[in-house]
Amino acid sequence: MKRILVVDESPAVRETLRLILGRDFTVAQRPFLPNDDLSVFEGEPDLLILGIPPELGAESAVVGKITSRFSCPVLLLLDSKSAADLWSRLGRVECLVKPFNPYELKEKVERLISRSSILSQPSNPSLSGDSRVAHYLDFPYLSESTSALAKRYALTTLPILILGEVGCGQERLARALYSLNDNVGAWIAAYPPELTKEHLLGRLARLSHREEGISQRVTLFLSGLETLQPSAQSFLLGFLEDEEEKGRQFWILSTSQEDLLEKVYRGEFLHPLYYRVATLTLRLHPLRERRNDIPTLAASLAQGYGEKLNLGKAGFSAEAMERLCNYLWFGNLNEMETVIARTLAVHRKETIEASDLVLGPGMEENQIFSPPVSKEEPAAQEKPIAQEVMPVEEKEKSVPSAPPPEEKKPQAVPRAANGDSPDMKVLITELAHELKNPMVTIKTFAQLLGDRFDDAAFRVRFQETVGNDIERMDELLEAMLDFSRFTHPAVERIPLYEQLRRVLEEIVPECIKRGATIRWGRTAEAGEIFADEAQFRYAFRNVLRTVLAQLKPGGEIQIDVEGEGRVAVSYIPEGGRIGPFVQYLDISSSGLEEETLPLRILLAKILLERNGGGIKVSHLEGGKVLIRAEVPVG
User: For residues 621 and 570, is the Cβ–Cβ distance under 8 A?
Assistant: First the structure.
């Protein structure tokens, strides 16, 4: 029987794991001792289950030292979901949060045990395949740990499920795996709209005709499994079973942008199909979790596209590299590759400056043909949103340009580009701040609970306060998750006033709860704007929820549609100015106050900037706060 070592400071946890796993595995258990590196343990287990003591905190180096002693996979038991991303970066490590689902525990254990036999094989650094795609198995396209695991998986014909957000390069990784395996037959790809019986049987029939007989080995690439409807899942499972009964051998490589195991637990994905396609799993980390890899990755991409464009050795200045590292990269690897290729094609020079980066589509002409700054134009910090006027060299002055932006767009508020360091620093600080406040309340009540549990009034207050704080944190995290799903705006013409009315209808219950009054000011000039409807509504929904959270009880919110895509929201907050959190940051710039915004407004600001607009917060006499937003009108 396979051997599992369980190390946890809690006897109850150790005994629970023994009861769950003891029938199928040999389970050895021991406590986690002070300064323990498990060096006294004899033998090599097939799996290490390690409970992380609270006192270790974020000491990943300590845990890394412990896990490095073993060549087997490691399953970490954690006390919170927030720690899972940190620990999972150790490579062979997977995480499970207490209290855990016993079925999820067994699934992870069985998958890791099956992986251990592969990890015990010596890796083959001389793997070679189609050079056009094989390099996508290497660092920096993959993290070092994922690269090592992928190369070992390439030695097998076991089904591999590749998990990752949009743009992480799942299909390219699948093709790279295929290029390294000489005994897996022809490649057949199926995408959700094509995943039908007719499509798959047609592809197999053409393959058999071309090869004069039934091809026994086929590599089947299945993209976007998370989108499959139940009927398509049932068909796919039956198709695989029927074809294998006929002697067909499939190597299944599949991708998903969502956790399919979670969908199995929710009853949204067939568990037999999941276990059929996910014998091995590769998780591709988004670029926001690989910030230290970005310089190497960007340099590699620049070198490749520099050679394709006959530019020689292309690279980035320190400022450009800093901006790349701080950019949010909603499209991950694909977006970075596109940005670097586009930038080199537009500027065609060996050293790219920060101002050269073409971060979004449609910015190319602005960078080449923007008129020089004249004395009549506003100062740099007062330029309209999304208008970054770049100096033009003398030889370009004769190039005709479009009419000045002021003729088409209103005077706008200052901003920083999406992903600039002030936004990132404030984003992190504000997230911590927004979560710490309710946690302090919850912790305080929890500490008093033992002494005052018999106090009925205290219990009622405890339930109300803690419930509200948990709801607040949950709503904030949901807002962050919604924000993370947005990519490039799908810009369309939408009616400004109608969209604002729809947003207000969504928050009416919250207004009633706080006794708030909404008063419309100017609306006659409301027209149409160009923006992504979902992102526009998300931005203004978060602005208004921030205002409601800060509004005096029974207070009034005034909304003015000022024309030319501008909207002003004014109110008097309870307790003074809006979000003065600059004291939390090591920033001394006197002009940074506009960047120190509450988290929801900061998220709205970033999204509006991606749509070509922006937000500015001003503080007026009498304690009134004015939030002015702007969206392009043409």
Answer: no
Specify the pLDDT at position 210: 58
Give the tokens for residue 606: 């970033």
Cβ–Cβ under 8 Å, residues 486 and 535: yes
Q: Is the peptide bond before 140 cis (omega within 30 degrees of 0)?
A: yes
pLDDT in tens, 269-323: 999 999 999 989 999 999 988 888 999 999 999 988 888 888 888 889 999 998 8
Q: For the whole prediction, is pTM greater than 0.85?
A: no
Angle at CA of residue 104, ends 55 and 253, nearest 5°: 115
DSSP 396: G
- The β-bridge relationship of strands 3-7 and 26-30 is parallel
Q: What is the pLDDT of residue 510?
A: 82
- Report, as ranges of residue numbers, the positions in the chain whose pLDDT lies below 70: 32-43, 54-71, 81-93, 115-132, 194, 208-215, 361-453, 458, 523-526, 575-597, 634
Residues 6+ apart with CB under 8 A from 628: 413, 566, 567, 568, 569, 615, 616, 618
CA dist 445 and 442 (Å) reads 5
Task: Please give the helix or strand (H or E) that residue 522 lies within, else none.
Answer: none
Angle separating helix axes 456-485 and 599-610, nearest 10 degrees: 20
Contact 371, 383 (CB under 8 A): no
Alpha-carbon torsion, ordered 489, 493, 498, 499, to 10 deg: 0
The 8-class DSSP code of residue 584 comes to G
Task: Give yes or no for a cis peptide into 159 (omega within 30° of 0).
Answer: no
Backbone torsions φ then ψ of 350, nearest 5 degrees: -75, -30
Four-residue CA torsion sign, 19, 22, 24, 27: positive
DSSP code, position 623? G
Q: Helices then strands (H, E): number in the chain?
A: 20, 19
Angstrom distance (rounded) from CA 595 to CA 580: 10
State CA 531 to chain mean position distance.
22
Residue 563's DSSP bridge partners are: 566
Retrieve residue 67's tokens: 């896990």
Q: How far apart are CA 149 and CA 360, in angstroms?
A: 34
Task: Give the DSSP letter string of 260-305.
Answer: HHHHHHTTSS-HHHHHHH-SEEEEEPPGGG-GGGHHHHHHHHHHHH
60-82 burial by CB neighbour count: b if 16+ within 10 A, else e?
bebbeebbeebebbbbbbbeeee
303 burial level (CB within 10 Å; 0-12, 13-18, 19+): middle
Contacts of 121 (CB under 8 A, 6+ apart): 152, 155
Q: Catalogue all structural domains in the chain, each as residue range(s) with its CATH number.
A: 3-119 (3.40.50.2300), 131-285 (3.40.50.300), 313-407 (1.10.8), 421-630 (3.30.565.10)
Question: Residues 627, 601: contact at Cβ < 8 Å?
Answer: yes
Please give the distance of CA 90 from its chain centroid, rounded to a whole number. Answer: 19
Selection from 30, 108, 46 nearest residue 76 by Cα: 108
CA end-to-end distance (rounded Å), the chain: 69
